[in-house]
Amino acid sequence: MAAQETQNPTSGDKSDDDQTARAVSLARLLHQESSLLLKLFKEKESFFEDYTPDGGRIVSLSAASEEPSTEEQVLLLHSGLRQCLGLIHCVILKEEEEWGDLEGDYESMRKNVHQRLGYLLHTTKALMENEETILEATPDHQCTEEVDGSAGVFALKMWTYRVLLELVHWADHAANTLYKLHSEREGKLLN
Amino acid sequence: MQLLKSALLLVLMGLSCWAKDVIPIPQEVSLLGNLRTQQVLISWSGGEVTSFDLLILRTELNDTVFYETVTTTPDKASGRHDFKWTSVEPLECTSLSVKVRSRIGQLTSDWSSMQIHQGNDSPTNELMQVYPQDKIVLPGTNTTFCCIIAEGKSFGSFHFVSETLNVTRLSRRAYAATVYSPKPSPSFGFNAFCKGTTQAEITGAVLFVGYPPLMTNFVCETHDVISAVCHWTEARDSHLLGKRQTRYSINGRNCSVVCLEQNQRQCSVPVWEDKWKLLGRNSLGEYSLTDTAGVRTRVVPLPPEEVSTGATARKANVTWGWKHNHYSSLALVCQVELTSSDDKTKRTFSGVGLRSAVLLDLYPYEEYSVKVRCGAQQNFWRWGNWSKTISFQTECDVPSTPDVWISMANDTTGQIIWKPYKQRQSHGPIVGYEVTLWSPDNGTRRIHNVSPEMFTLPLSLSSIIVSNNSRLIASVVAKNPAGLSPPATIELPLHFTSLDSEKVDFQEGAFPLSWQSDANTSCGFVVEWNEALCVLDCAVEWIKVEDDIRNVSIKSDAFEPGVKYSFSLYHCPSEAPELLKQWQGYMRELTPSSSVLLSTKQQDLDVVITWSDIPASHKRGFLRGYNVYLNNGSQLTPLASLSHNENSYTVKGLPLGSYKFTVKAFTSAGEDSGGTASITVEPYGDWLILEILATLGVTALVLFFVALICYKKRKWVKSAFYPDIPEPKLPNHWSTPQGTLDVKPSPHSMVHIVEKPEWDSGKEALVVIPEEDEDDEGIRDEPVDTDEPTSLRYYNQVVDERPIRPRYPDSSASSASSLDSGRTDVTYTGIQTSGSSLVFQPDPQSFSDQPHVALSSPESQVCSSSGYRPQNNWHLDSPEEADERRSLAPSLGSPTSIASTQFLLPDGSTEESAQEKHQSTAATWLTSLLSSTKP
To answer: What are the Cα distances from residue A121, in Å, to A148, A171, B227, B590?
Structure first.
């Protein structure tokens, strides 16, 4: 598990710099794994090869200010990742309910992504949490509503596909945002 | 006619009106659709009529889907008629309109009011949809899907997995497509999906294709005589998982199924029942199995727990415990599986509430492992599972008696040898050996302690034995932590003996040895073997043979091809062993590894080949003989095949010359590479001398007879070879000519000077030869020589073999030189001719300008006249005469030849004008020369 100790995000010490670097690596790894998970899903369900869903993002957040600082962006990212964790958790539950507990490549990678996203959440929580900011690293999704408002296994597959696209998107966003934070903190450390 | 038709029409109309009034129209038509089964239950009130026409249309396009006459009976309670119609397409696909009319024979009532079964393609439902959703079918079941495109959108395509399907339009928005004979689906099903005209317009359904449950081997057992554990095998994969997987129940109670290996399933039931029913059910069907048994007949004890052992050297006590106390009163039978390094055995024990077993006949100092399983002794059903395996080691015991032998090299030296212990003979780690030598005659005793790695003890009896006939006994004991082994004793033989060996062949992987011996013996035999060529510290092996056995096959992994082994049979091994018989043999003979050393010598005109023996270690087989070959380098010509005890061979009557001989020794495996020696056969010395003497004698004898004949015929010889020559008569001094001599020379004495550029080299001619360079090969190669080979040889027979060689390679230079200096390199003095002419004929090309010189013997003049005349002014009358002269060559060698210093000069008048000057100049020069040289 990633370190969970609380630190001042603006302290700018060396260990904090290492932690942001580790968070960047984790986010990049998550992006790779979620992309691979999406690829495995497409191979399994051939009909998604040329499918581009519309309807916008499942996870969408709005910043408090029009030009949020990097720290605010990371906080926003943390919130988005929590929802993503809830979504992938829900995907796992629904798929296991539908197909049973399988042990294929897709299921293995799905488990990896779930765990990796949990590590990343803990890492960002450790990065940003201070006395004034309390963050959660638990899934922010109840997994109770119908998937995309309709029943049926095909709808579940469509929804799973959208969740996986969302994961790839947020993992990429996490890698970029955390790298930005890392660069800023590294700059402060050098100054 | 027209009137008739009108009348008939009126009748029919009347009947129709009557029928409509009489046959009731179906009332209260209602529709009830079952979306899962795709069936519509049509219900109506129709009175007593039993036959009805049903018409089903797709509402939007008014397509007839079903139009048939059906026969129904009214329900006794409600009095309503029912008909269940199954749609090919899902009922959600489009709205259906249904109406019914009664029929009596050909007469029908009016149609009932139209009833509509509402589909999902109505404008109020704008979404894009595919039906049926999540349908589960058997493999091979044709399934029709329909796609309802979104309101205001266009249909794109319909797909099943990766296949595009043909569609049928059902309504404005609904399209149907059929999937034929699908195979069993993967766990996540087959996707059937519909696309619109944009990439975002896609929706679909999943089709699951699988089988109903099928189980076998359903059995219920009990471990504790109270509860039951039932298990079965899934005989077929249903291809349905998760929500759709097969659910099981036993005796109506749902099972929490545990999946075991190889499709084994297990379910526990808390209380035993004598009758069991397993029911498997999924969306495609159900299957059930039953089992009936009393609880005492299905007891399978749980694996024993807490297994432990206590072992001595040859015995172990295994104990275990039970999870359930119920077993203490249960008659059990248990198996203990005992595994050692090379063996596995099962030993069975029984008893009420059995908790231990004693394992006997174990090997000392041996690693074992044990595990236990049990079953009910009464009404045995099957063994329970094995307990965990535990290991133990037995304790040490004293070693077994060592196997001892003695091998004597001679009367006083040898070695006591004993075999290393095999597995399970040492009964513990050997820490050493103790060898005792003692003489019962004088009580001498010597003890030697030998390390555990040594298995021999060298013997030197000279220091132990007091007298030649003293007995000496060797005793060997082995030591391990448990103590000493029983001693192995052997009495040393008094004298070393050796016998002639028999040859023994290796057959079927062994050396078969057999012998005859006194049948009354009771002390047994020992067969000992070792490498026959071994001299010191030989590795000796032996086996002991019972006294009633007279043959044995000796096998050993140590036997190697090409090695000679010696086998010795001894009698009474524990007493002083007596050698009875010896054999020698090879496991497999090889060709000799080295060749003979060959030497040759000439004996008169014969060649004697001798060779040495091959060293015994190189023979590698029983030597059968030698093959002698004449070796010409590339081929061996066999000369003889000799037995192995011959070491020489004589090759007789060889012509003089060089020879090579090869001798190859051979065994049953073949020849070796062979030894080769060369010799040059030279003439025999004595014969050479005799030949020389004989030749000399014959020569002397011939000369003697020749001399004798010459002597006897000396007058004839003289007249024939040396006739008297008359003295020349000179009236005055003749050196100066006093006038012209008009003597026509004889044609036989004319010398023609031929000086034609077109001189024919093919014609014979005599040439003048200078005195120098007689044997110069280079000169002989000059053109002038090769042009006249016959002339040269001819001349050589007469005078000399020296060829003529032009002095000057440049003819003009030569000519100039001759003219200017008035001399020539050719010396003409001392030339002897006899009855022939010598003609100097230079190369007409090279020497065209040279003076022509002709020599002519005066003999012709002598024969044709009474005196001699100077020859300085001869004339040839005609060319024919010159030709005639050439034909007189046979007169050469006549004893009438004389020596002359006169040059014979040709007459310049016959030559070309250009040459006359040269000739005259040469004549002048010659005349002066002659004048100066004449005495």
So the answer is: 26, 11, 49, 82
Question: Structure tokens of B736?
Answer: 């100066």
CB proximity list for B691: less than 8 A, separation 6 or greater: none
Mean pLDDT of the residues in chain A: 83
Sign of CA dihedral B422, B427, B429, B435: negative
Maximum separation of any 2 CA atoms in chain B, in Å: 203
Chain A residues in contact with B237 by the CB 8 A cut-off are none
Instruction: Note whether A97 contacts B: Cβ–Cβ < 8 A.
Output: yes
Contact, B114 vs B97, CB < 8 A? yes
- Which residues lie closer than 8 Å to B293 by C-beta, 6 or more apart? B220, B274
| Contact: B133, A152; criterion CB under 8 Å | yes
Judged against a pLDDT cut of 70, whether residue A18 lies above it is answered with yes
Cβ neighbour number for residue B894 with a 10 Å cutoff: 14
d(CA B770, CA B185): 124
Query: Cβ separation of B206 and A52 shorter than 8 Å?
Result: no
Q: What is the spatial distance between Cα B750 and Cα B860, in angstroms, rounded to a whole number?
A: 8
Q: Do A99 and B133 touch (CB under 8 A)?
A: no
First to last CA, chain A: 31
Residue B191 has its nearest CB partner, among A45, A98, A102, at A45
Helices (H), B788-912: 789-798, 811-821, 859-864, 879-886
Q: What pLDDT, in 10s, does the model give residues B339-360?
A: 999 899 999 999 999 999 999 9
Q: What is the pLDDT of residues B839-891, one digit of tens each?
A: 334 444 433 344 343 333 434 343 333 444 444 444 444 444 444 444 444 44
Other residues' Cβ atoms within 10 Å of the Cβ of residue B87: 20
Chain A residue closest in CA terms to B159 = A47
CB–CB contact A98 B243 (8 Å)? yes
What is the tens place of the pLDDT at every residue in B619-628? 999 999 999 9
Q: Residue A103: its chain B contacts at CB < 8 A?
A: none
Nearest 10 degrees: Cα torsion B286, B287, B292, B296: -80
* Range 140-179 of A in CB contact (< 8 A) with B: 151-154, 157-158
Interhelix angle for A105-128 vs A70-99, to 10°? 150
In this complex, is the C-beta atom of A99 within 8 Å of any C-beta atom belonging to chain B? yes
3-state secondary structure of B57: strand
Domains present along chain A, CATH in parentheses? 18-190 (1.20.1250.10)
Which two three-digit tokens encode residue A97? 């309910």
Dihedral sign for Cα atoms in the order B250, B252, B255, B261: positive
Question: Which residues fall within 8 angstroms of residue B367, CB to CB, at 6 or more apart?
Answer: B340, B341, B391, B392, B393
The pLDDT of residue B773 is above 70: no
Per-residue pLDDT at A146: 57
A44 touches B at CB < 8 Å: yes
Distance from CA of A40 to the nearest CA of B (A): 14
Whether B838 has a pLDDT exceeding 80, the answer reads no
Give every CB contact of residue B761 below 8 A, 6+ residues apart in sequence: B787, B788
Tell me whether A53 touches chain B (CB under 8 Å). Answer: yes
Query: In this prediction, what percent of chain A has a pLDDT beyond 90?
Result: 44
Rounded distance, CA B518 to CA B577, Å?
A: 15
Tokens representing residue B731 in the block:
């009236």
Does the complex come out with an ipTM higher than 0.90?
no
Half-sphere exposure for B290 (CA within 13 Å, toward CB):
3
Size of interface A-B (CB pairs under 8 A): 60
Strands of B253-254's sheet, edge to edge? B253-254, B247-250, B275-282, B285-292
d(CA B7, CA B73): 38
pTM over 0.90: no
Which one of B131, B162, B188, B197 makes the best mutation probe of the A interface by having the most chain A beta carbons within 10 Å?
Answer: B188
